[in-house]
Amino acid sequence: MSEERSLNFLEEIIEEDIRNGKNDGRVHTRFPPEPNGYLHIGHAKSICLNFGLAQKYNGQTNLRFDDTNPEKEETEYVESIKEDVKWLGFEWQNELYASDYFSQLYDFAVMLIRKGKAYVDDSTPDQIAEQKGTPTEPGTPSPWRDRSVEENLLLFAEMRDGKYQDGEKVLRAKIDLASPNMHMRDPIMYRIRHAHHHRTGDAWCIYPMYDFAHGQSDSIEKITHSVCTLEFIPHRALYDWFIEELEIFPSRQYEFARLNMTYTVMSKRRLLQLVNEGFVNGWDDPRMPTISALRRRGYTSASIRDFCDRIGVAKRENIIDVSLLEFCVREDLNKTAWRRMAVLDPLKLVITNYPEDQEEIFVGENNPEAEDGEGSREIPFSRELWIEREDFMENPTKKYFRLGPGLMVRLKHAYIIKCDDFVKNEQGDITEVHCSYIPESKSGNDTSAIKVKGTIHWVSTRHAAQVEVRLYDRLFKVEDPGAEGRDFREYVNPESLQVIPSAYIEPDLASAVPGKGYQFIRKGYFTLDKESAPGQLVFNRTVTLKDTWAKEVKKG
RNA sequence: AGUCUUGUAGUGUAAUGGUACCACGUCAGAUUCUGGCUCUGAAAAUCUAGGUUCGAACCCUAGCAAGACUACCA
């Protein structure tokens, strides 16, 4: 009945907690992006994980913007993040901001000062770094470490009231300067920044650090399972310390390995560089691994969710082959995309025994993968057609199943034709192929008894519309452009974008709908780009079809 | 250097002391009015060395390797 699917380590923890009645069996997660950039496929993993866990255990998920650094955060990013999460198919319980808690956080800080667990430090950043010591040597106390509670209270209030310049003072937790965990060596809780915040405006000039905001925000929201990535492991001790000292709801932090993918980079810093230095045309350039770029390129949200499901969740570092993502989108689009014909690299084909003024209308089903075919469209046929240049070979090799002198193929949805002749220009380029058709071989009504190995797609020249097509390839030439010791920018693939200014499409495609995936038969999956205008359509190639012939050719 | 985390086919990911599972990828074949889809099959893995045990991917010890941390970023 119930297919027993093994649990990932987080599901095991949660089920154990539920068994033990922890938090009354309640599961509440959160997705906590900092609004300082666009979401990428790595965030999608985290989103699917956090929302998925809550869904599975009848819990809830908050969307919380971790906006404690006014200098980097902007409303533009908040909006794009919300759009992406929604598009991925998830609904958050509450839309919250760490900045909503600034006042509460301030009170928490005062509590710690009163307990003698925090102090105002006048040291400079360099001095504080110096005081930290090294992993093998303990740190040294700041000269301001033993100020009285009263003095600390006064100074902290003055910090809040704007009496000091940026960087003049900080509030530090008083923990353990000899801890092997560097994060416990009197970490900074608050810094002074006279900066405008995207939500609180100029109400504050002191801002809490991540460590003094994140865990407390979780706690305030009664988050039960706070899931983050591996690099926060050393922060967990501090996370727990603040919760314990403050005696607030004990949220717990768990860490998993972030997603890495071949032939791309994933850090916001590098993504920002690609945009700023012009390697791509913006955050949603279809070559980017951002959610908005994948969407624009034609990836479906279902395929991304499926991908996140397949890659699993664990604690070991990983680098997922991008071909898995491509598999997921092909699998989804194969089931849903409507089939259409388009010729990307046109070569003229003349059917010499087909009357000049004759036309026929053939009918092609929209989706052969659906039982009912999802309806059909009409495809006009005439004496002159565009076919793909690669579908004709002057001296065909033995396993070539397409056109060549004397060879026969079927024109998809139409007739079987035989190649009688071809025309070359002075440069030796083939400019025209001449064929004759077999009238009895009409699609759906074939009495010719002729068997052909190949079927090719085509578009009637008289009825074709012209469009621009953009073919995308991997953004980088190497599997791991971000590896240690290399400048990823040197590995950008110069052929990652190939623009075809005029490809030919069958008439029905002229009314293509934005956001819908189409399969250009034998060529791949495509979708309308946002830069399309009426009569000036632009199609993005989402992904090619699997191409075993190309592999054959490569092998020689 | 110290602390922490992690080592299973090419890439991911299961097996929780008892036949090393599955997927992607790769290779071979069948089918096909898409060289797609679908179907069949194949090759391919427990970091190393000891120990405990009838039996170890799993437990213990010691190595080795990779990654993280030493920001007034998150």
TrEMBL record:
Where is the stretch described as Disordered?
125-145
Binding residues for L-glutamine? 66, 210
**HAMAP family per the UniProt record, alphabetical:** Gln_tRNA_synth (MF_00126)
Q: What is its EC number?
A: 6.1.1.18
Subcellular location per UniProt equals:
Cytoplasm
The protein's annotated catalytic reaction(s) are: tRNA(Gln) + L-glutamine + ATP = L-glutaminyl-tRNA(Gln) + AMP + diphosphate
Cellular component GO terms, alphabetical: cytosol
The family annotation for this protein states: Belongs to the class-I aminoacyl-tRNA synthetase family.
Subunit field text = Monomer.
List residues of the Glutamyl/glutaminyl-tRNA synthetase class Ib catalytic domain: 27-334
| Main location group | cytoplasm
Q: What Pfam families does the database record attribute to this sequence?
A: tRNA-synt_1c, tRNA-synt_1c_C, tRNA-synt_1c_C2
Q: Which residue range or ranges hold the tRNA synthetases class I (E and Q) anti-codon binding domain?
A: 455-529
**A single GO molecular function, which one?**
glutamine-tRNA ligase activity
- Motif 'HIGH' region, residue range(s) on this chain: 33-43
Protein name (record) = Glutamine--tRNA ligase
Residues bound to ATP: 34-36, 40-46, 229, 258-259, 266-268
Q: Which GO terms describe its biological process?
A: glutaminyl-tRNA aminoacylation; glutamyl-tRNA aminoacylation
Task: Provide the species name.
Answer: Pararcticibacter amylolyticus
Please tell me which stretches of this chain the record labels as motif 'KMSKS' region: 265-269
Question: What positions does the domain Glutamyl/glutaminyl-tRNA synthetase class Ib anti-codon binding occupy?
Answer: 337-437
**Lineage top rank: taxon:** Bacteria
Alphabetical UniProt keywords: Aminoacyl-tRNA synthetase, ATP-binding, Cytoplasm, Ligase, Nucleotide-binding, Protein biosynthesis
Taxonomic classification: Bacteria, Pseudomonadati, Bacteroidota, Sphingobacteriia, Sphingobacteriales
